[in-house]
Amino acid sequence: MDAYSVSEITELIRQNLEGLFPALTVEGEVSNCRPSSSGHLYFTLKDESAAISCMMFKNRFIRMSFEPKDGMLLKVKGSLSVYAQRGTYSIVCEEMEKAGDGEILAMLEKRKQRLAADGLFDEDRKKEIPRFPKTVGVVSSPTGAAVRDILNILDRRAAGINVIILPAPVQGNEAAEIIASRIKQANQWALADVLIVGRGGGSLEDLLPFSEEIVVRAAAASAIPVVSAVGHEIDWALLDFAADLRAPTPSAAAELVSSSREETIDTINYLKDTLCETIQSRIEKARLLLKPFSLRDLEYRFRTILQPRLVRFDDAKETLTGNFRNRIAEMRRRLDLTKTVIEAGNPSLIFERGFSLVINEKNGKALRRASELKKGDRVTIRPFEGFVTAITETTGTILEG
Q1: What is the pLDDT of residues 248-306, one digit of tens each?
Q2: Are 41 and 56 contacting, i.e. CB atoms less than 8 angstroms apart?
């Protein structure tokens, strides 16, 4: 039975696919977006049931007016290409534009740039999260799964910690104003040592209240450290940049603000025992190393180590000094040669040796040949000093030899 080789079947696939799709437009959500060190862009376009690899060459990527990021909906134009060595296919993109949520992302990007310009995202203004807070404030929906997760984790890791729920809707037109109001109230009455502001996952539109300017500014102005806990790990909101700490999920936020008391005590005891054992071990090792040596022997060993290095240092110094001397001498020779060349081309020195410049007064040009003059032409002769005018009587050629 005849069989195709891997190269043959791959070549057939390549010819058919690339021939069938020389130009196509595909729309999907971006994931695994990663520019390479060479400047090319690699990413995946996906929908609910499929995904396809894409790439854009550097010369196209650098012309883009925006930077693709995970979660964006894009519409790309390009051609289908088969990579035979790996047996894969991908879209080589020539153009791309935002689609669907792209308008929301563009709006958020403009807002992000404006708020960043106001210094709300600066790292130097962020506050440290207390490791053992007495009271944790939670700004979220009191009936949401996020609050239940936070309470369960705080109870398990730090039993006895006080939790204050500051209820607020987490989506809808009124959510942003109420969330910002709860942050301000917590600061006004010093209700907590740290605030967790967030919700569970949702669509890009569901998370928009946590990107509203009023919420971002309230978090940035909060004297109480703020932990942003919006959505799942892949989700994001502008609150993430203004908060003092960003947690990938509400559960993670609860863990970040509640160091386990028992784990901390166990860690301290372990570190104490390890430190004592390490110090004792090093003392014993030092005693064993010092035991066979006297002070005189130590001085001898030190000199044995130091002497070769001093010799190498002296040799290196002499070599360096010699190289500098040779370099200076070479530069002086070049300077003298340059001076000689310059002096040789100095017109003043040529005139001083008895040469003169003859100028035809008719055209003001320097005379090179006697044939350029006629009888009666006036000339000006410029020797080393002064000038002489003369009228031509005869011209001729000087025969050499």
Answers
A1: 999 999 999 887 666 777 888 899 999 999 999 999 888 887 776 666 666 777 777 87
A2: yes
Q: Determine the structural domain holding residue 12 and report its residue range.
A: 6-100
Report the sign of the C-alpha dihedral through residues 214, 216, 217, 222, in that order. Answer: positive
Strand positions, DSSP E, 190-304: 194-199, 226-230, 245-246
* CA–CA dist 27, 103 (Å, integer): 15
3-state secondary structure (DSSP) of residue 73: strand
Q: On the CB side of 188, how many CA atoms lie within 13 Å of its CA?
A: 7
pTM of the model: 0.47
The b/e string for 207-240 (b: 16+ C-beta within 10 A; e otherwise) is bbbbbbeebbbbbbebebbbbbbbbeeebbbbbb
Residue owning tokens 């009271």:
135
- Which residue matches tokens 């009455």? 189
Alpha helices in 119-212 (DSSP H): 145-157, 175-188
Q: What backbone torsions phi and psi does residue 228 show, to the nearest 5 degrees?
A: -85, 130
| Distance (Å, whole) CA 143 – CA 260 | 26
| 96, 74 Cβ separation under 8 angstroms | yes
Chain centroid to CA 200: how far? Answer: 32
List, in sequence order, every beta strand (DSSP E) within 249-393.
Answer: 357-360, 365-366, 378-382, 388-391
Q: Provide the domain count of the chain.
A: 3
Tell whether 77 and 154 lie within a shared domain: no
Based on the domain organization, do 153 and 47 belong to the same domain?
A: no
